TrEMBL record:
Provenance organism: Winogradskya consettensis
Top-level taxon of the source organism: Bacteria
Subcellular location: Cell membrane
Membrane topology per record: Multi-pass membrane protein
InterPro entries in alphabetical order: ABC_transp_permease
Transmembrane domains' residue ranges: 36-53, 65-84, 91-109, 115-141, 153-174, 186-210, 231-250, 256-273, 303-321, 359-379
Record protein name field: Xylose transport system permease protein XylH
Function (record text): Part of the binding-protein-dependent transport system for D-xylose. Probably responsible for the translocation of the substrate across the membrane.
Length: 409
């Protein structure tokens, strides 16, 4: 046996990289610049408009209105993230919202269908629309851009045929879906709604428990985690943000908006689906590396089909919320909704090339768009300039994503 071999055998084995999150904080922040950059951008935009509007942006009633007015974007952005992560695009959701909203209003006003049943039927019709588009995309092989472009024209035309003029006279229970608030069942603490405060405490506690359990699971399996300082800072900032929003909503005229509960449930549900289910992992696989996904046995046709069925269901929910908010159905409803949803997804960090994106990121992107809309409206900026500003923000967000990828490479 040679001396060199003996020396090699005497050397200790290479130490296994630890996933205990003890790496450099600056290095971690640099690697996740996109994620934290969007949060910082939202904070900066809020502070900027709070100054420019003389403190009016964060009036309690304005925060409630911000959530109610932008609920449709939040709902559609959830589905759009899944579509874009898988490497597709959906241009039809605005027209689908108008089409299903018209059906919902007609069922209630002309056919005396109970509004709750009409809501269920509307969401199911959204699923059927998703089946229609998913079939052409997944099983016939037509690109999603073409199918949904055709769907945009098809369902807008059907909306005009069905609705014609405005369909109004909808019941108060239905209108309260988007305009109402939860009842003050627990009374008031000083001038703060007790139920809203309880919901905020539960949200903060739930977030903390979920994040701590997830981190412990990663450490237990010796997987890579973020540095503890980043973890603690992110948790603290999230808790402060939720607490402050809870305080503002508790001071508002109505308390917790009903639509906020709907959006919150959807965010939790789809975050779990994307992070903890086989279906979610398959969506990332499709957008990240399609040939590898096929070789790995992913049933790509079925996954693509279900992605668009899901998008249709969420478009049905958005249609109900939009029609409820307006108190009527109009053929022009949903105009540019698809652009708002796509912009929210991209601003929130979803990669243009697919494979990367988070539901929470899209929610941040939607709130950036919503704050821009409300802040500029309070300042009485012309709607045309509001559209121009949103377009510039979208270009800047995508450019930032591309430059960040180049820097990483």
């Amino acid at each position: 046996m040679s001396a060199s071999t003996t020396v090699e055998q005497q050397q200790p084995p290479a130490k296994k990289p630890s996933g205990n999150g003890s790496g450099s904080l600056s290095g971690y922040l640099g690697q996740n610049l996109r994620q934290y950059g969007m949060v910082a951008a939202l904070v900066i935009i809020v502070v900027l408009f709070q100054i420019l509007t003389d403190g009016k942006l964060l009036y309690p009633n304005n925060i409630a209105a911000l959530i109610q007015q932008n609920a449709y974007v939040l709902i559609l952005a959830i589905g759009m993230v899944m579509v874009i992560v898988a490497g597709h695009i959906d241009l039809s959701v605005g027209s689908v919202v108008a089409f299903i909203g018209g059906i919902c209003a007609l069922l209630i006003s002309d056919h005396n269908v109970p509004w709750l049943l009409a809501v269920i039927v509307s969401v199911l019709i959204g699923g059927i629309v998703g089946c229609w588009q998913g079939f052409w995309i997944a099983y016939v092989g037509i690109p999603a851009f073409i199918v949904t472009l055709g769907g945009m024209l098809l369902f807008r035309g059907l909306a005009i045929v069905l609705v014609g003029t405005t369909v109004a006279g909808l019941p108060a229970g239905f209108n309260n879906i988007s305009n109402g608030s939860l009842p003050s069942a627990l009374g008031f603490l000083a001038d703060l709604d007790g139920l809203t405060l309880l919901i905020g405490v539960i949200a903060i506690a739930g977030l903390a428990v979920a994040q701590i359990r997830a981190r412990r699971s990663l450490l237990r399996n010796d997987l890579r985690t973020e540095p503890f300082a980043a973890f603690a800072g992110k948790l603290a900032v999230s808790a402060v943000a939720i607490g402050y929003i809870t305080y503002l909503l508790a001071k508002s005229a109505g308390g917790t908006p009903v639509v906020l509960i709907i959006v919150g449930v959807l965010v939790l549900l789809y975050t779990f689906i994307m992070n903890n289910t086989v279906f979610g992992r398959h969506i990332y696989a499709l957008g990240g590396n399609l040939p590898a996904a096929v070789l790995s046995g992913v049933k790509t046709k079925r996954v693509n089909f279900m992605i668009f069925v899901n998008m249709g269901l969420l478009a049905g929910v958005a249609a109900v919320v939009t029609t409820s908010r307006a108190g009527a159905a109009v053929a022009a409803a949903g105009n540019n909704f698809e652009l708002d949803a796509i912009a929210a997804a991209f601003i929130g960090g979803t990669a243009v090339s697919g494979g990367i994106g988070k539901v929470t990121g899209a929610i941040i992107g939607a709130f950036i768009m919503g704050v821009l809309n409300m802040g500029l409206s309070i300042m009485n900026v012309d709607p045309s300039w509001q559209m121009a500003v949103k377009g510039l923000v979208l270009i800047a967000a995508v450019a930032f994503d591309i430059l960040n990828k180049r820097r990483a490479k």
